[in-house]
Amino acid sequence: MSRIEAIIDFPEDDLPKSILDEIRKITSNVKEDIIKVINDQKVGERIREGFKIAILGPTNAGKSSLLNYLSRRDVAIVSEIAGTTRDVVETHLNLDGYPVILSDTAGIRDAKDEIERKGIRLALKKAENADLNIVVIEPKSGYFTGVLRGLVNSDKTVLVVNKSDLGIKKIEAELSKFNPIYISIKDEKNLDKLIFAIRGKLKNKFVSNEDTIITRERHRQNLEKCVESLENFKSKSSEGDFDKAAEDLRLATRHLGMIVGKIDVEEILGSIFNDFCIGK
User: Fold this and answer.
1) Bridge partner residues of 93 (DSSP)
2) Rounded to the nearest 5 degrees, what angle is found at the Cα of 47, between the Cα atoms of 45 and 51?
3) What is the pLDDT of residues 229-253, one digit of tens each?
4) What is the CA 196 to chain-centroid distance, rounded?
5) Are 168 and 256 contained in the same domain?
6) Is the distance from CB of 182 to CB of 168 less than 8 angstroms?
7) CATH code of the domain in which 190 resides
């Protein structure tokens, strides 16, 4: 900022000819650094708020039982009556050291009434916004509706076959391409295998190559606006429209200032007189 302000305010002084190249290089480097931080797959927000996991599947497959098992307490009502869960039931927990928001959702089927239809719509919305989906089925319903079939083909889905104690031979061939995990919540069978698979997904999502991570959406928005201003600056500075280009730099600095603190006019003037032989 001090360099471009010097060009505008002291055009008669013999400023270095390389000053424009320096400005473009500095702003370009800053922009690239910020873009690297922004492209972090929202790791910081996940660390702060929790990794979102949605449990989905047909009615009576054991979704609520799985939620209760992972939570180590009775969070959801468990019943043999199909369609017991109508709303989304959420719980925050620590899963092997990772913060998690676990959501139990309404069973997906042809709804009996409007309340159940709303519950299913909420379930699908949770699936869309989740970092990981656990689709739970059981041997007697070893098939998927169109919606569930679309979910199990996603990279962010783990397919779980509950009640495997009832026998799985008839569905193994059909489901093999989805790499399902066969469990029995009743007998506590293979649940450690499921937790290991979930942990593997969490581990990959929490990886960041940057030392700086964004933990608030407000910070992310200000960084994105800063990058936008720096891109505007680059196009204007190349055309020699320095007054408007300087304003883009001010905006970029203002957005950064919302996160790390403001830069005032005195600092800019101090930098001008320190770096250049102005008025001497």
Assistant:
1) 100
2) 85
3) 999 988 876 656 777 888 888 899 8
4) 21
5) no
6) yes
7) 3.40.50.300
